Amino acid sequence: MKKNIEPCYYGDYLQLTKFLDSQKPVSGKYGEEAHDETLFIIVHQAYELWFKQILHELSSVMAVFAKDDVKDQQLTTVVHRLKRVIKIQGLLNQQIEIMETMTPQDFLSFRNYLVPASGFQSIQFKVLEISLGLKSRFRIDFDKQSFYNRLTEEHQEFLKALEQQPSLFERVETWLERMPFLEFGDFNFWKIYQEATDQMLDQELEIIKANDMLSEIEQAQQIKEHKATRANFEALLDKDKFEAVRQAGRFRLSQRATLSALFISMYRDQPVFNLPFQFLTCLTEIDEMLTLWRYKHMMMVQRMLGSKIGTGGSSGHDYLRRTTESNRVFQDFFNLATFLLPTDALPTLPEEVNKALGYYFSQN
User: Fold this and answer.
1) Does 40 count as an annotated binding residue?
2) 3-class secondary-structure state, position 343
């Protein structure tokens, strides 16, 4: 590392003169300046700064998964950076509590001056959603119709071009599909997995039938639900059935990618799978934290505006509620829990597979 030649001054390095002079409340143009508008501006500026950092981290992760080969050493860095993203998301969720120190009347004292500005116009947040994998075809209907309406032509063209690029979801799907252990020599894990799940489901059905505490109606309902669970397992392992439920929107990942993620999750204690499992867990937590952020934002908007229309023209609280429920990216990783087996029921892997999944030292 070379020694710096010019001295570095704190205020100049952070460009504080420019930065601290960038809060310009609009309410003062029309009368007395609303006291809480400065808070509103600073919180949203802080959001945008953290969005920039999140995108900086995701960009480095995307670069790793754009390659044909992902090394374990790279996964270490990827997991570290995604955990940083999760910490930042936690901070963003806490910032909403600061916003909620503003009363509805405090907000109404300047809110109408902001029309038609809206969070819809946060380009960085739209880049974040698209980069993760929330592209137009996966959005709720209102988003499909209005996603680009309130943006400049330059921003519209930029985001439309970004939609044509592979997202992190698509990169991860391709990476999972390359996982080599689904079939290994003469070993086919899914044959023994199907035997294990059939045995588990048969035992569960017997427990339902033998439960004297259930009424006939309750027993019939549980048997019906058990039948649906068995159908889910059958769809997971049958190529045609899987594709049918995938087209219906039950899965986004391909069958092979889903099976690979499930294999990694079930055998996460194997040395080769430790980092991949941490990586998948990070993606799940990022999706969870983003959903939590949407939920907290929705509750704050209802608290501030009730049922009023949002400044961007959406239905306010109702719109945010629907995006909270629907705008998920890595939901397939949440749903893997449906297909997990108890640890003591996991099929034993052949020795050659165990060796391939572990780290073995040999002087030869």
Assistant:
1) yes
2) helix
On whether 41 is known to bind a ligand per the annotation, the reply is yes
Instruction: State the pTM of this model.
Output: 0.89
Does the structure show a pLDDT above 70 at 295? yes
**Residue 317 is assigned to a ligand binding site:** no
Q: Would residue 226 count as lying in a domain?
A: no
Instruction: Supply the CATH number for residue 282's domain.
Output: 1.20.58.480
How many domains, the chain? Answer: 1
Contact indicator for 209, 219 with CB cutoff of 8 Å: yes
User: Is 214 among the domain residues?
Assistant: no
pLDDT of 142 strictly over 70: no
The answer to whether the annotation marks 140 as part of a ligand binding site is no
56 is in an annotated binding site: no
- Per the structure, the complete domain to which residue 353 belongs is given by 32-184+253-357
Residue 328 covered by a domain: yes
Q: Is the dihedral of CA 128, 130, 133, 137 positive or negative?
A: positive
Residue ranges of alpha helices (H) inside the chain are: 10-13, 16-19, 37-65, 72-99, 104-108, 123-132, 141-146, 153-163, 168-177, 189-210, 216-237, 239-247, 255-266, 274-305, 317-326, 331-335, 351-357
Q: Is 103 annotated as a binding residue?
A: no
| 329 belongs to an annotated ligand binding site | no
Quote the pLDDT of residue 336.
Answer: 94
Write down how long the chain is.
364
Residue 212: other Cβ atoms inside 10 A: 5
Q: Is 297 assigned to a binding site?
A: yes
pLDDT on residue 359: 63
Supply the pLDDT for residue 163.
Answer: 94
- Residue 142 in any domain: the answer is yes
Average pLDDT over residues 106-116: 90
